[in-house]
Amino acid sequence: MKYIFQVRIKEGYTAEDYAEAWVKASETIQRAPGARGTELHRKIGDDKTLIAIASWDSKAQRDAMENQHNPDVAEIIRGAAPFCEITALGEFEDPEWVVLPPGKTT
């Protein structure tokens, strides 16, 4: 499954600042069972809007990670919170199939 959220960077902070915090939190979160990776993308033409996509084997595994308080991750999120506005866009099923150009893999 995919967990997708949007990040709006506030004035005085940069996408690079947020990305640094995001990488630190992701390194810990991605050790959880079922974590399959994360991606952070900048919106074209708007360097203050990002989208984050976290991939998981299942919603249950993501929920289990969320329900286990990790003080290191909480501290990273608290540190970045005043500088950004995060909006959850939702949880999405992985597609049943994906068509890729020859030679490409997911």
UniProtKB/TrEMBL annotation:
Which keywords describe this protein according to UniProt?
A: Monooxygenase, Oxidoreductase
According to the UniProt entry, its GO molecular function terms are: monooxygenase activity
Please indicate if the UniProt record lists Oxidoreductase as a keyword. yes
Q: Does the keyword Metal-binding apply?
A: no
Any matching Pfam family: ABM
Q: InterPro entries under this entry? A: ABM_dom (IPR007138), Dimeric_a/b-barrel (IPR011008)
- The ABM domain extends over 4-63
Name of the protein in its database record: Antibiotic biosynthesis monooxygenase
- Species of the source: Idiomarina zobellii
